[in-house]
Amino acid sequence: MRDDGLERPEHQPGMALLLSLILCGTGQIYNGEVSKGIMMMVLCFLLWFVLLGWVVHIWSIVDSVVVAERLNRKAG
């Protein structure tokens, strides 16, 4: 809990989304799923060579938000 009395969720879905938008897999790393984040980074990088990296990138964005929300429900 913060000094102002307002409780902030530990995993902010907006932050996970922003990180995944910037670099595929970083939202998962932010959520504590390091191996999943690294796997997504590698897959995205490799698939960009055949113009399919956007598929993994979108999966990374959606997954990071869903996981952050799920972690917040568990903690709450």
TrEMBL record:
Sorted alphabetically, the keyword list is: Membrane, Transmembrane, Transmembrane helix
Which parts pass through the membrane?
A: 12-30, 42-62
Name the domain of life: Bacteria
Name by which UniProt lists this protein: TM2 domain-containing protein
Species per Swiss-Prot/TrEMBL record: Persicimonas caeni
